[in-house]
Amino acid sequence: MRVVDLKIEDIAFGGKGVGRERGKAVFVPYTIEGEIVSAEIVREKKQFAEAELVEVKQSSPDRVEPQCPYFGRCGGCAYQHINYEHQLAIKWRQVRGALQRIGKLKDVPMRPIIPSPKQYAYRNRITVHAQDGVIGFFRRDSHQLIEIEHCPISTDEVNRALTQLRTQTHVRDGHYTLRASANALVFSQTNDEVADALRDLVINLVPPNQQLLIDAYCGAGFFAKGLLDKFERVIGIDWDRFAIAAAKENATAKETYVAGDVEEELINLTRNGDLQVAPAVTDRRSLTLIVDPPATGLSGDVRKAILDLAPTTLIYVSCNPPTLARDLRDLKDKFIIESVTPLDMFPQTAEIEVAVHLRCNL
């Protein structure tokens, strides 16, 4: 394999720096835009090449010393070599770039990114893997495990659980989710402080005195329960029966939670005007819809159902800007984007959370 000298021009979504050799993009991890580096080409395709960093010949003023001894080998973090303010700038720029490039959106109403109060020790859960006596995370771009004694981006409670697992004898091969809290059956965001900021943001985006909220992919009602004061009725939909059971535990008379497929339930609503036990939606001007789908985004049928429903207010929470951009491209003919707010739910990693506020233009 050959070694090339590159100037890093940008940071791609996923965290790798981008340089160019004879016009071809070369992706190099653990670099920062503006740096001059030597990199070894390890995979070469027709349109691009992958490389490994050999030496930083001219470093960025934003380069810092990573706090984790496993950084560069563990596949979890991508940005520990970058100071936090610049991490935020990169993520903000990547969200805007994805919406412009993939979503074909020209004037993106970007708001400032909401930072994490904690840059380390924020994760309230991790999943480690055990194989042949090794307990840890996968190496970057590999299924080979690296032994982990302590994860700096995880909370003390999670690291104590990791220590307890490591002290056990004869740990079976498999996957182990270690949590700061004991509620292991219901999904929750991994960064409590930023999750609270996200909920506050969503609450502030919704005007008061509304009739009906449909919270799709509602989990245990994280958004729905925070919005009860603004709606006469609240309906949550999620496929996870454990989450729905948790949502029902302290539900008020105005709350209805449905364990079912979001796609089917929204299609039923648009076709029949009925969502299981919910009343028909007769006035679209009274309807607010929140969607918080998995990383794959919204299916084509869900996008169509949203267009048919035409809620006055649509809030889309995404953990994957490229699929968000794809979906917004399909929704933009009927909805106006009021604001796009990135949130740094996952400091030191390349992951980005985004909340988009849309208004029906009919």
What does this structure look like?
With 362 residues, the chain is of the alpha/beta class. The chain starts with a strand and ends with a strand. Strand 12, helix 4 (241-249) and strand 13 form a beta-alpha-beta unit. 23% of the residues lie in helices and 29% in strands. The longest helix has 18 residues, at 84-101. Helix 1 runs parallel beside helix 7 (321-331) and helix 5 (262-272) runs parallel beside helix 6. The protein is built from seven helices and 17 strands. The strands form three sheets. A seven-stranded mixed beta sheet has the order 13-12-11-14-15-17-16, with helices on both faces. The radius of gyration is 22 Å and the shape is globular. The chain has helices at 84-101, 156-167, 192-205, 241-249, 262-272, 300-309, 321-331; strands spanning 3-7, 10-11, 17-21, 24-28, 36-44, 48-58, 125-131, 134-138, 145-147, 174-179, 210-216, 231-238, 255-259, 287-291, 313-318, 335-343, 353-360.
Quick tags:
six-stranded mixed sheet, 23% helix, 362 residues, 17 strands, single chain
Separation of the first and last Cα atoms = 58 Å
Our count of helices gives 7
Strand content: 25-35%
- Read across the widest sheet, the strand sequence of neighbours is 13-12-11-14-15-17-16
Unreliable runs: 275-280
Overall average residue pLDDT: 92
Q: What's the count of strands?
A: 17
Main sheet specs: 7 strands, mixed
- Oligomeric state, counting identical vs distinct chains: single chain
What class would the helix/strand composition place it in? alpha/beta
State the helicity in percent bands: 10-25%
What would you call the shape? globular
What Rg is obtained from the alpha carbons, in whole angstroms? 22 Å
What are the secondary-structure elements, in order, as H or E? EEEEEEHEEEHEHEEHEHEHEHEE
